[in-house]
Amino acid sequence: MSNRSFEELQRVLHYQFKDPALLRIAMTHSSFANESKVPTQYNERLEFLGDSVLSVVVADYLFHHSTRPEGELTRMRASLVSEEALFAFAKTIDLGRYLRLGHGEELSGGRTRPSVVSDAFEALIAALYLDGGIETARAFILPFITEGATAAEDYKTRLQELVQERPGAQLQYAVTGEEGPDHDKTFTVEVTLDGKVLAAGTGRSKKAAEQQAACAALARLQRG
Question: Which residues are annotated as catalytic?
Answer without folding.
Answer: 51, 122
